[in-house]
Amino acid sequence: MKNKLYIVFILLFVFALKIKAQTSSSNTTTMYKVPVIVYKGDSIPCITLRTVYVYPELHFKNKRQRRYYNKLVRDVKKTLPIAKEVNRAVIETYEYLMTLPDEKARNQHIKLVEKGLKEQYTPRMKKLTFAQGKLLIKLVNRECNQSSFQLVKAFMGPFKAGFYQTFAALFGASLKKEYHPEDEDKLTERVVTLVENGQL
User: Fold this and answer.
1) I need a surface site. Which of 19, 81, 149, 150 has the fewest CB within 10 A?
2) What is the band of 14 on the pLDDT scale with cuts at 50, 70, 90?
3) What is the pTM of this model?
4) CB contact set of 110 (below 8 Å; sequence gap of 6+)
5) What's the CA angle centered on 103, arms 100 and 108, to 5 degrees?
6) Which residue has the higher pLDDT, 122 or 40?
7) Are 93 and 113 in contact (CB under 8 A)?
8) Domains of the chain by residue range
9) Measured between alpha carbons, how far is 12 from 136 in angstroms, rounded to an integer?
10) Residue 131, Cβ neighbours under 10 Å: how many?
11) Spatial contact of 82 and 88, defined as CB atoms under 8 Å apart
12) What are phi and psi of 92, to 5 degrees?
């Protein structure tokens, strides 16, 4: 009788270990489908890794510089998506304008686009600080390879471009401001690159 109980106990113990092994292995195994390259009959996984940007560590002389950098990161995260949206809107508008038959149809479409942009972006622009607005002007230049003044002039004409430039100048800003990643905007370019890559 003792032998039978001993054998039953051992069988239950082995059975419990087997179940535990199966559940633990099924919980930790994750499968991914990846492209492969076949080389001499052997399948080799081919994975493209994201570029990782490495910059020298920043050293701040004081708390003021650190606050400036933290504010720049926050402002870039807020304004960069808007600059990218502007770039997409410019490309889409230009491509659509090229399909229209005449100048009258183009002017009508530009008026509709201007109205739509005002409705869509005015509430968002009102939430930006003055510094964020100036940064946005530079980031639009970065994304579109043209200043905001040139974009307004190309789509809405020189009169409206001059009007908006004068309006911006009243607040100490300029639609003609350009982005210089190798010079005055070097730190901004670093932050933008890291934000775009998901490293910040």
Assistant:
1) 19
2) low
3) 0.68
4) 93, 97, 155, 156
5) 75
6) 40
7) yes
8) 63-196
9) 69
10) 12
11) no
12) -65, -45
Helices (H), the chain: 2-28, 63-97, 103-126, 130-144, 148-156, 158-170, 186-196
Contact (CB, 8 A) for 125 and 152: no
Which segments of the chain are extended strands (E)? 36-39, 42-45
For 175-195, the DSSP string reads TT----TTTTTHHHHHHHHHH
Q: Distance between CA 58 and CA 35 in Å, rounded? A: 38
Query: Measured between alpha carbons, how far apart are the two ends of the chain, in Å?
Result: 69
- pLDDT above 60 for 5: no
36 contacts 46 by C-beta, under 8 angstroms: yes
Which residues make beta-bridge pairs with 42? 39
Instruction: Determine the Cα–Cα distance for residues 36 and 43; give it in Å rounded to an integer.
Output: 6
Query: Which residues does 113 contact at the CB level (< 8 Å), separation at least 6?
Result: 89, 93, 155
Q: CB neighbours of 93 closer than 8 A, spacing ≥ 6?
A: 109, 110, 113, 155
> Residue 83 is encoded by which pair of tokens?
């600059």
Residue 72 has pLDDT above 80, yes or no: yes
In 132-150, which positions are buried (b, 16+ CB within 10 angstroms) versus exposed (e)? bebbbbbbbbbbbebbbbb
∠ CA(117), CA(181), CA(64), 5° rounding?
90
